[in-house]
Amino acid sequence: LLASALERWHTNVTAARSSRRVMDKIVRRWTQKAVVTSFDQWHGNAVEQKEQKRVLSGVVMRVMNRSLYGALDTWRSACEEAGRFRALAQKVVSRWTSQLLASALERWHTNVTE
Length: 114
Prior knowledge:
With about 110 residues, this protein is mainly α. It contains 1 helix and no strands. The longest helix has about 110 residues, at about 1-114.
């Protein structure tokens, strides 16, 4: 009776140990699968964020380039307008100078001929 009880106890302990090993393997696989899944999700998110950063950097650069182009175009327009005003002012001054010179020459000629 005692030998049979010990034999059943030994069989039960061996079966429990075997079940424990099987359960440990299952838990390890689930844990490893969860870790791999988590890592894959993290990696996918990291790749997606890197791509978003690259795209957004391009968008920001285009916006900055547009702003810079607008400022440069405004400056160029102002320079062209200033050049037109300068040319117009030179024509006006030249015309006044020519009129003053002609008037002075006419007065001199009048004084000389009298």
